[in-house]
């Protein structure tokens, strides 16, 4: 009896720690992307914030995808995906791709990259990648990938902070002007 009470307390602590971790990590603001892939003639996609640059030489990035997501299996099979970085006015699209429905691409304007991944129209930036490794990370798969091509355009990003979507603001009002001039966008490869 005592042992099972101890087990319950342990479990409560574990849940509390998990919840605290989730809330604390929510303070790390990120952008919002839609990861897309195509397998056996079907387009897959999910909203993801767990995206990180990994290496410059060669250009690599990583994404963390829940093992239960339809998109994870599709990426594992196709070995290709695109990272579509959302604009500040695209929170509705982010919510749309944060569901497991199978008709997420219906009515959307898409094209296909050189590797065959679906590229969503009117994105802030798009990168098409080829998977080099799938690393297990508990509930998630970490896909390491080489960036095959990358494009970006002028605009501001959708952001994600403490479980909510919002806008990014520069520290000073004029700093954005020179930023656009510095950016010359072209394919990485
Ligand atoms: C802002 C936001 C960020 C998210 N980030 C991730 C993520 O990085 N990795 C992940 O696996 N799921 C993430 N999700 C949840 C997936 O979008 C969601 O589970 C989706 O329904 C999976 O779709 P699928 O089963 O069709 O692949 C996020 C959701 C939101 C709203």
Summary tags:
Pnp Oxidase, Chain A; alpha+beta; 4 helices; globular; binds flavin mononucleotide; 12 strands; 189 residues
If you had to describe this structure to a student in words, what would you say it looks like?
- This protein has 189 residues and is an alpha+beta fold.
- It has a domain of 125 residues: Electron Transport, Fmn-binding Protein, Chain A (Pnp Oxidase, Chain A, Roll), CATH 2.30.110.
- It has a 7-stranded antiparallel sheet with strand order 3-2-6-9-10-5-4.
- The structure holds flavin mononucleotide.
- Flavin mononucleotide binds next to strand 3, strand 5 and helix 2.
Query: What would you report as the Rg, rounded to the nearest angstrom?
Result: 19 Å
Tally of individual helices = 4
N/C terminus separation? 64 Å
Major β-sheet profile: 7 strands, antiparallel
Name the overall outline. Answer: globular
Can you say what the CATH homologous superfamily of the domain at 29-153 is?
Electron Transport, Fmn-binding Protein, Chain A
């Amino acid at each position: 009896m005592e042992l099972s009470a101890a087990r319950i307390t342990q479990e409560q602590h574990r849940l509390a720690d998990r919840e605290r971790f989730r809330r604390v990590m929510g303070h790390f603001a990120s952008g919002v992307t839609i990861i897309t892939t195509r397998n056996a003639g079907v387009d897959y996609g999910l909203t993801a914030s767990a995206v990180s640059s990994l290496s410059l030489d060669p250009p690599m990035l990583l994404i963390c995808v829940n093992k239960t997501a339809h998109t994870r299996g599709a990426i594992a099979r196709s070995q290709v995906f695109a990272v579509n970085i959302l604009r500040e006015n695209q929170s509705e699209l982010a919510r749309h791709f944060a569901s497991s429905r199978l008709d997420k691409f219906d009515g959307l304007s898409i094209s296909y990259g050189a590797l065959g991944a679906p590229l969503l129209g009117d994105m802030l930036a798009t990168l098409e990648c080829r998977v080099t490794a799938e690393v297990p990370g508990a509930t998630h798969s970490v896909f390491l990938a080489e960036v095959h091509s990358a494009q970006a355009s002028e605009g501001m990003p959708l952001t994600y902070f403490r479980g909510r979507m919002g806008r990014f603001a520069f520290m000073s009002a004029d700093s954005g002007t020179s930023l656009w001039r510095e950016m010359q966008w072209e394919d990485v490869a």
